[in-house]
Amino acid sequence: YKTETTTLPDLVLNMDEMEKWVSEGNGYLTNVSTKLKYSFVSSDIIGTKEKDTTVYGGDLRFMLLNYFDTTFTYTEQKLIQTDTIAKAPLADYLRRDFSGQTSFMYGRLRVTPKFNYIYDIKTEKSNILTSRVEEIVPSLNLRADFNLPYGIKIPFITRQYLMTNRIIWNSNVSYSRRRSFTVSENRDLFT
Hints:
The protein is mainly beta. The protein has one helix spanning 19-22; strands spanning 3-7, 11-15, 29-45, 49-64, 68-83, 88-106, 109-124, 128-147, 152-153, 160-161, 166-180, 187-190. The protein is 2% helix and 72% strand. Strands 1, 2, 3, 4, 5, 6, 7, 8, 11 and 12 form a ten-stranded antiparallel beta sheet that branches. A two-stranded antiparallel sheet has the order 9-10. A hairpin with a 2-residue loop joins β6 (88-106) and β7. The model has no long low-confidence stretch (mean pLDDT 84).
C-alpha cells in the first residue's frame, strides 16, 4: 500500500506580559502569559483509508497575589478515520485533557495542589460507541529543600572537613477515579 502523509507546520502563539490588559495595574495578577497551539496531520493510505488528526490547546500561567504560581492547561485531540472506498466513517476519537495547579511556599515547604481531568471517547462504524472513559486525578505534591549543619569532624583530627549537606525531600499523594461504561475499566487508585 502506498501512504501519503501531510503535516502542516505547528502553529504556536505566545503572549507574555498580559497583565497590562488583564489586571489593569491592580497587582492581583502578575507575570501573565499564554500559549496557544494548533497542529494538523493527514495520513492517507491510497485507495483504502484516510486518517486526519487535529490537536489544539492552550496554557495560561500567572502569579496570583505574588504568592500563588498558577497554571491552567487544556488540550483537545480529534482523530477521524474514513474508508475512502465506501466513503464511510471507520472511527472517531476524541480526547480532552484539562489540568490546573498552583504552587506556594509554606515555611520551607513548597506545596503544589493539582487537578487533572481526562475525557476519552471512541466510536466505530455508524457511530457505535466502543469506549468512553472519564478520569479525575487530584494530587498534592510537597517539596522541601534545606541544608543541615555542614562539615564533619573525624576523631583524633582537629580540623573540620567542610561539605554540603543539602537535602531535597519530595513527596506526592494522588487519587485517580476512572469511570467507563465498561465496568472492567473502572478503578479508584490512591497513591
